[in-house]
Design a protein that fits this description.
The chain has 286 residues and is mainly α. The chain has twelve helices and two strands. It has helices spanning 9-13, 22-37, 50-59, 61-73, 83-106, 118-126, 134-141, 155-185, 203-219, 224-247, 253-259, 267-277; strands at residues 48-49, 115-116. The protein has a two-stranded antiparallel sheet. The longest helix has 31 residues, at 155-185. It starts with 8 loop residues before the first helix and ends in a 9-residue tail after the last helix.
Length: 286
Amino acid sequence: MEAPLMDDEHSATEGASAFKHLRFVAFMWRLNDIYMTGGIFGAVSGPFTVRQCINLHKLLVGPVYLTFIYTYGGDFSLSQKWGPAAGVLLATHSAYGFFWVYKDIWYPDSGWQVAQNLFGFLCSFLYPLALYYLPMFCLVSRQCPLGYFAEGDEPWLLAVALWIYIIGFFYHFVGDISKDVQLRHQAPRELITSGVMAHTRNPNYFGEVFNYLSYAVLSTNMVCIPVFMLVWVQIFLPNMLGKEVSMARYETWEAWRRRSGFLFPYMPSFLRDYCGNALTRLPKVD
């Protein structure tokens, strides 16, 4: 996830007439802020920050998954029918959690450093964060609704999930880290339209969606996708739409918007740049 990226309140109102979704964005930001910080009882001063809740969730992926494996499998051998998928899911999701915390330490997002009280901490951990433990539960318990589409030992399942995961891991971390580095050294502030952001305006969200889509594939159950989509609509979508409003004030916005995708990379410009530079002596991209 990425925190909202409005530079200030004035940025949010500029070009408001061109963005009919501004009220939805403002409402969801306010709702999510109150919910995640625990601000329903008034001003919040701590004792936690939102990043602590998120990081704890990420660090607990491995222990929680191992608990599920032992509870429903009886041991850690992964010799069960679902063992191959469980092993890959354990490795990929726990690695993602580890590197998320690494990124938060060395490339922090200030939006997650806001104060959070105990109520907000517990609410945020239970929803939406705890829902992200669902893939392993569904896989090993075989008790989730909406039906199962695989057993967990199919080679095609592992191949598809890993392919999706690698794409997501790349876009998520490269997008976040490159944005952080460029913003630290960029003066004056301008749109970042190069690198992974040349083809998608939200590479970090695209990557995170693909990461969790790979976990949903490994869960072998259909319920994970609608559950994850609920979270994405509540949190990801308002943040992405809000960024659109903020970035629209830059002169280079319209040209960038035409050659990039809102979430998914815009394939015509991507393929043009990729195929046109893959075998050249030196790459030449904007």
